Amino acid sequence: MAVPVFRPFPPPDPPLSDGTVVLRLPREADAPAIAAACADPEIARWIPVPVPYHLEDARVFVAFTAEAWSSGREPTFVICDAATGLLVGSIAIHRRPDEPRTAAVGYWLAPEARGRGLAARAVRLVTRWAFAVEPELVRMELLTLVGNEASGRVALRAGFAREGVLRSYLPFRGGLVDAVMFARLRDDPDA
């Protein structure tokens, strides 16, 4: 079976920003902040990160993001507070080798960054960017585990439509779990 080949997205220069959040490429110096955030039980509850999460896991993640950018399969950003420069999360575009017209966005936020609208801002920024740099892209998906109401609200605020529940759909910690599908189409009105 052939390994899928993606056309790499060019990293944005300057980094993406709306004046409140900045999305930039991860770097090794981010590992301590990533490790601290991903040690949060709420992140582990909804995202398949290693448990417990250690500094070495964060270093592996940063190395993975460099390869994912160069291969084009998963452009990944860290989310930073524009006012302070502090890392508050991560966001990525997951490309589908079987369907280049569809991709998915996934993210996490550190506990201290939640409830400020930063996730919705980051999702809007990265979605607009992906549609701008990939002419074939028609559909951006955002999946949440059933019960993750906060991420569902983020999807709606970012202009995604709730499409329904996919039963036993997502692989998660050794099983398949139900997920809520949200999607935004290229020609949907801006959020």
Which helices and strands occur, and which strands form pairs?
Blueprint lengths: L15 E2 L3 E4 L6 H8 L2 H6 L8 H17 L4 E6 L5 E9 L6 E8 L8 H16 L5 E7 L3 H9 L3 E12 L2 E11 L6
Parallel strand pairs: 5-6
Antiparallel strand pairs: 1-2, 2-3, 3-4, 4-5, 6-8, 7-8
Q: What percentage of residues falls in helices of 4 or more residues?
A: 25-40%
Please count the helical segments.
5
Name the structural class: alpha+beta
Strand content: 25-35%
Can you tell me the CATH class of the domain at 17-142?
Alpha Beta
What is the gyration radius calculated from CA atoms?
Answer: 16 Å
Mean pLDDT: 94
The total of beta strands comes to 8
At the fourth CATH level, what is the homologous superfamily of the domain at 17-142? Gcn5-related N-acetyltransferase (GNAT)
CATH architecture of the domain at 17-142: 3-Layer(aba) Sandwich
CATH topology term of the domain at 17-142: Aminopeptidase
Q: What is the terminal-to-terminal distance?
A: 40 Å
Shape: globular
Low-confidence stretches: none
Reading side by side through the largest sheet, how are the strands ordered?
A: 1-2-3-4-5-6-8-7
Query: What's the order of the H and E elements?
Result: EEHHHEEEHEHEE
